[in-house]
Design goal:
The longest helix is centred in the C-terminal third of the chain and has 24 residues. The protein has 2 domains: 83 residues, Phosphorylase Kinase, domain 1, CATH 3.30.200.20; 184 residues, Alpha-Beta Complex (Aminoglycoside 3'-phosphotransferase, Chain: A, domain 2), CATH 3.90.1200. 49% of the residues lie in helices and 17% in strands. The N and C termini lie far apart (39 Å). The strands form 3 sheets. A 5-stranded antiparallel β-sheet has the order 1-2-3-5-4, with helices on both faces. It is an alpha+beta fold and 278 residues long.
Length: 278
């Protein structure tokens, strides 16, 4: 997305903080702009293409990020008509920029575990069967989309359905979850920060580890160990088996979204996780 003078993000910023200039940042996704006001203060302006995600992110900033003890940007303004937000710039760079295998990468995982633990402990609710049934239904809808696009075989369909049955029959605790908790959304610098709350909602607590489990930790188990050292406790054997079931959601959503967005990397990731399940 190319910024123009009438860009809704720039309009929101001008109406809120006055004149701004766009700071070039090729590392940002198209929906984000880095801005500076006349005093040199930096901000990020964000526009959602999906109204539901916009509303979820606004709600998250208002209701839940307080549990993260100041480790997030602050909402300066938002505008529902254009699904835009103006945020303070939290200092630091994406943890994705850290060298793989470095001590800095391991340290970031440990702090990330500690920060997520703050959120989970503040919002956890006891074990019940309701969340598992809801997740099984969600997984079923993704399986149907994969079937319609002819993305999975009969054997793969049956394996995914088995995972849905496991979820539906499992008691699990819930918490407010980030649901995209991975290094690209961690900010490392003077302190540790966290961004991007468009997926945030109450969900199965264990599910908040799924992206790390299937995208990072398989190849680097020391990062899993560092993360849970920060989180406060490792997963039990039962919780680890439950996390494996969430791999079915990771696999089929990656396959469908990769197909719909013509994203070969995402599709390949979905195939890799699905092969592990089968």
């Amino acid at each position: 997305m190319i910024a123009t003078f009438d860009d809704p993000r720039i309009e929101l910023a001008r109406d809120t903080i006055g004149a701004v200039r766009v700071l070039a940042d090729p590392t940002l996704p198209p929906r984000l702009l880095r801005l500076a006001d006349t005093r040199g203060r930096e901000f990020f302006a964000k526009q959602h293409s999906d109204r539901e995600r916009y509303l979820r992110e606004v709600h998250a900033y208002g209701a839940w990020v307080t549990h993260l003890n100041g480790r997030t940007p602050t909402v300066v303004a938002h505008r529902v008509a254009t699904c835009t937000l103006l945020l303070t710039a939290f200092p630091g760079l994406s943890a994705d920029t850290l060298s793989p295998g470095s001590a800095e990468e391991e340290d970031a995982h440990q702090v990330a575990g500690r920060v997520l633990g703050l959120l989970h402990r503040a919002t956890v609710l006891p074990y019940s069967g309701a969340i598992g049934v809801e997740l099984a239904q969600r997984l079923g809808s993704w399986i149907a989309r994969a079937d319609r696009a002819d993305l999975i075989s009969t054997a793969e369909h049956n394996r995914l359905r088995h995972s849905a049955d496991v979820l539906a029959s499992t008691l699990m605790d819930s918490a407010v979850c980030h649901l995209d908790y991975q290094p690209r959304n961690w900010l490392v610098g003077p302190s540790f920060g966290l961004c991007d709350f468009e997926h945030m909602r109450r969900d199965a607590r264990i599910r908040d580890f799924a992206r790390l489990e299937f995208r990072r930790w398989q190849a680097a188990p020391q990062l899993r160990k560092a993360f849970f050292a920060g989180y406060g406790r490792p997963l039990t054997d039962t919780e680890q088996r439950l996390l494996e079931s969430f791999g079915a959601i990771e696999a089929v959503t990656s396959l469908v979204r990769g197909h719909e967005q013509d994203d070969l990397t995402l599709s390949t990731h979905g195939r890799t996780v699905l092969a592990r399940l089968t």
